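If you are new to this repository, start here. Below is one unmodified record pulled from the training split, so you can see the exact layout before writing a loader.
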Amino acid sequence: MQKTSDAFVPNNAGDAENQAQAITGVVWMLKRFDAESEPDSFVIDDPARYTLALMPNDRYRVTADCNRMQGGYSVDGDRIKLASGAATLAECGPSSRYADYLRLLAEVVRFEVINRGQLNLFADSGVLVFDNQALETDQRAQSWEK
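And here is the target side for that same chain:
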């Protein structure tokens, strides 16, 4: 496996399989969107309201603020395609990023996992940056114990 910074890039079938396994069965919380054009970038104030769960059965579930979506996905190496599925489309409020999030998920073409704690999903217009919810919860619990 090639290492570029802390990101692992698969370079053979075994690496790609490990990479795909690293993203499934985890609830990923959206932290921010790093756009190619700076004014389009945004940070999520409450990442627990913007989640992505990729199941081992090639299905996914999304929380997008007050909305939910589910659908199918496919992985081939570091390539990923999220097929749009059934979604609720309630109006969540003027500061909600639900529409941006759902639109960007449909544009995703590639992914990388960094130390199993961060997932980056690459779209044409930028990168969706997620944290592993379980690791985030563990870190909070440890800080409370101090």
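Two things worth knowing about this chain: The chain is about 25% helix and 40% strand. Confidence is low (pLDDT under 50) at residues 1-14, 138-146.
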